[in-house]
Amino acid sequence: MKRAILAGFTVLMTAGAAAAQDAASRAIDLERRGDLAGAAAAWRGLLSTSPTDLAALLGLERALTPLGRLAEMTEMVQAAARREPSAGVLGIAVRVWTAARQPDSARAAVERWATLEPGSELPFQEWGIAAYGARDRTSAKAAYLLGRQRLGRPDAMAAELGQLAVLEGDYSTAAREWVGAIRRVPGYRAAAVSVLSQANPAGRSALLRELEGMADLTAERLAASLQVRWGEPLGGVRRLVAALPPRGREAIDALQEALDELRGPASRDLLTARAIALEQLALRTGGPERARIRLDAAQAYADGGDQTAARRMLAVLAGDSAATPLMAATATSTLVGVLVDEGGVEEADRRFRELAPLLGAEDRQRLAIRLAQGWVRTGRLGRADSLLAADSSMEAQAVRGRVALYRGDLATARAQLREAGPFTGERAAATERISVLGLLQVLDADSLPELGAALFRLEQGDSAGAAAGLERLAPTLSADHGGAELLLLAGKLRGALGRTADAERLLRGAVAMGVPATSPAAEFALADLLVRTGRKTLAIPALEHLLVTWPTSAVVPQARRLLDVARGAVPAT
Amino acid sequence: MRRRTFLRAGASGIFGGWAAGRLDGRPSRRSTWLLIPMDDTQSDHLKAYGVTFRVLERGGKAEWFLNYRNGSFLLPADTTTQRDAAVAGVSAALLDDGQVAEIRGELAQGNMDAVPLEKAPKVAVYVSPNATPWDDAVTMALQYAGISFDKVWDAEVIGQGLKTYDWLHLHHEDFTGQYSKFYLTYAGAPWLQDMVDRNQRMARQLGFANVPAEKKAVARTIAAFVDRGGFLFAMCTATETLDLALASEGVDIAASFADGTPMDPAAADKMHWEKALAFQKARLELSPAIAVYSEIDGHQVNSPDRRQPLGAFTLFNFSAKIDPVATMLVQSHRQVIPDFYGMTTSFMRETLKPGVTVLADEAGAPWVKYIHGERGQGTWTFLGGHDPEDPQHQVGDAPTDLSTHPHSPGYRLILNNVLFPAAKKKELKT
């Protein structure tokens, strides 16, 4: 009899477990199909027989949350927590009470959970996240502060409190909390930079002040990263360098991290900041790696326009015993480029001739073109010609075209610049070449030394001289064969020099000539000048005149946009 | 102008009247006209409304060809108008009388009609003085199209300043006086502090005990403006909160941060929905921490548990000859338009009063997007959502540059509303 009862009980138990399994499968299937109300009913059914079944409680929570009915679980979760107060059940209880807007009950569940897991941040984090999810920042903050108090650690919940402080616009607190969080777990650095970089411009100075006040490497590293994110790479790197210890792993890590952050679109400041970081890294590195880093630093200084620093780095590299012959050649090649940019073309030429046999054909050609450009800038057009005599590349053709232009040989310049085409060389140079070609195409003459001389002055940076030359030449040409175009160019140059009245006079002259293409462009340039000098009311009729008189001009879309800006019809971006 | 006296005037008669010399002084047979097409050939749909509005402003007359090439405009082809269209970049075609007559023949045969536009409405936008000019879709649309308007706020409204205007726009103002219920979520944010300070100062200046009381008075004055024959257009949360403010006379629906006392937990049962314009029998959101007011809004964007995803809404087709008002309000070159969030994105069907005309809805959804109705001698139109070209609009987002959205069908709906009061009135069937 006893055996029979036991057997019957076992059968019943097995059948019960199988039924529960079936009910759970059905509930999960309903969830998968998106029938959340049906799934909730199925989970409820299961809980009526097994009120502490954690999987069923979690399932019901999953189903009710998107329906916005989580508060309906309060009784069930209360019963489960009474019978079996495990961490899992209490976690659900915290979320349900928070959704039901019953903070006292949520807090009681957190306290019970914290007793089960002393020293754990989890109960407080769970409460804070649930309150934050319900847009209740006050309760979220209270949860984290309670956690800090209970755990007795001033840096507990620092990241969470830092995040809340940012949302509240309290950047001083945010800075303190995040530095605390990083000191405890360095892995928080990336999150700290990402969150704190969202500070609005007004809050940024408060944040930096607070970090500065802490006067330690963690805070300074954070401040440096933020400055880089906010578009001040030079300030950021200088701040970091000032705070770095002379040696040690932490300094190297900080510099490598800074270099990773300095990978945005290349600007002069960003390149110089990279160069400074690389120079500092080289000081803390040994062997051939140090020479390579110095070479990179020299190149970055040169690209950033700091030729003196580039030359200093290259000189150090020359005396570096660890540098390989290839590195030395690359360094010399960089030095030639630096010297050309600095105007030391004679010395650059000498070094180039020494180095040429060691260079590959491509490097030699590239350097020769750069050197030729240097000779062009100094006015030694013959030296440029001879340097490129054997070069049939498009880049060389472009330089030869400019040489011809500055000599006033417009026919040759026209042919060679056209041959160089719109894609040769760097984008800026190609764009400039096309605009020069546009000018040459409207000119009838094959030779105009005065134009060559004016454009050569422009090449040398003498914009005022160039504008004066163009202004003198313009009346000697007919309006539609260069007269209007030269006035337009002269007007733009005067405008860039801040000679607004002269610019206006020249541009109005070009407009009055009524030459298709040139006159609308001049009227647009005039309107742009008026807007830039705060005279929008004068710009509006000019733009309206342009749009009505030249409706098919290429500048119409820009003109319409400028008109919207001048009228305040669109935000000025 | 009174809505009910929308006299049906023979389109050809009115047209002939203009051509007789009132517009350009030339004899009718030789008159030429400017057709502003509003289909996909139009190069700037939004500025086309501005060109038409300015014709009316100059004392000229125009016609709105409902459902003809997606709601085209017929304007006098005088030099000023042609120049204006050219400057604005608005596509236009010159027509002679014969061509116009052909179009009229087409209008007569299909679901189309010609509605005369006679007088530029005097436009007011209700906006607080500290509001950024780029944070209100209607202000942006008006500025982009070049339609002149005045700004009014509480002092002007309470001081009966609305009497001089034909058309009033409300955007995301919270007429329950709870600062968009951002008080807790954005506590400490300078812009919120500024909003609170300004509203409290204004309430004191106007002699009210608190901001909710003052906003209720503003809402009542706006409702009276509609009663007197005004045209009201509201978007975003102004739609819902205006009705909540009107219906909550004598009921505390404001959280304690706004008026010092908590919201009446039984407020929903005490509401006077008969005073509201569009909605009825809605349950109210009791939590002061959730930036949601009631169940009127279908999308509940600020309630993480209830937030609904965005879909697309479809404009209804109306009979141009029988329902010209509704037809004017839905003129567009796109019938299905992507939805966009606002604090109030849409309106639950079950909360609409009987008699409300639904102009657009989302197929299969329990909410509608665009509604219209009458009150007294005037009309109101509500469009849910904040910015048709910024679907996820968040506080602090970059402003929308309409020169990059010249064909925006959502913004066209706004501008339909601006021109609608210019229409010569005839008997409404809607």
Q: Can you put this structure into words, describing what you see?
A:
The complex is a heterodimer of chains A (573) and B (430). Chain A is mainly alpha-helical and 573 residues long. Helix content of chain A is 76%, strand content 0%. Chain A contains 32 helices and no strands. Chain A has helices at residues 2-33, 36-49, 54-67, 74-83, 87-99, 103-116, 122-133, 137-151, 158-167, 171-184, 189-196, 201-214, 217-229, 233-243, 249-261, 268-283, 287-303, 307-318, 325-342, 345-355, 361-378, 381-387, 394-407, 410-420, 427-442, 449-459, 463-473, 483-496, 500-512, 518-532, 536-549, 556-567. Chain B is 31% helix and 16% strand. In chain B, a hairpin with a 2-residue loop joins strand 14 (367-375) and strand 15 (378-383). Chain B is globular. The A-B interface holds A 65-68, 70, 99, 101, 133-138, 168-170, 202, 543-544, 547-548, 551, 556, 560-561, 563-564, 567-571, 573 and B 83, 86-87, 89, 134, 143-144, 146, 184-185, 187-190, 287, 289-291, 302-306, 398-399, 401-403.
Portion in helices of chain A: over 70%
Q: Count the helices of chain B. How many?
A: 13
Which overall shape of chain B is indicated by the principal axes computed on the Cα atoms? globular
Distance between the termini of chain B: 18 Å
Radius of gyration of chain B: 22 Å
Instruction: Find the biggest chain interface.
Output: A-B, 33 and 28 residues
Low-confidence stretches of chain B: 1-29
| Mean pLDDT score of chain A | 87
Total helix count of chain A?
32
Average of the residue pLDDT scores of chain B: 88
Q: Main sheet of chain A, how many strands, which sense, barrel?
A: none
Which structural class should the secondary elements of chain B be placed in?
alpha+beta
